[in-house]
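Hi R.,

Here's the chain you asked about this morning:
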Amino acid sequence: MSPRSASRNTAPTGWQGAAEHPPPIEVLWWQGCPSTERLVPVLRELLDELGFDFEATVRLREVKSDAEAEREKFAGSPTIRVRGREFQESGGPYRLTCRLYRLPDGRPSPLPDRDELKEFIAAELGASTSPHSNGGDDP
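And the predicted structure, written out as tokens:
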């Protein structure tokens, strides 16, 4: 699934461009980078574990020019923001490029560490990351 088709399939009707009630998670992406296609299923799974619906929670937005990248403070694709707060903030440069995240052991990666991203999203959205927060059988 491409980010472009995911965006079409997941944005509620009338959502594009509506600023009244934007979804809390925004993924900015650039067509020249394949990492976003790998991120979408991971993000979908994380949100499901946290009890959130991907379609209602995430907006995928393509960045199309270096000028737009500068304006949006887009440090590369994919850039993940939750309620406006960027996961692993970057000081730039801002341009159309693939993004590198730092894993807990310091290695660079085209995708963020799954557990760190889950904790970030849970903290920003006020969700629990415990294994039983998603309807476990324990009391």
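Residues 35-50 form the longest helix (16 residues).

Let me know if you need anything else.
M.
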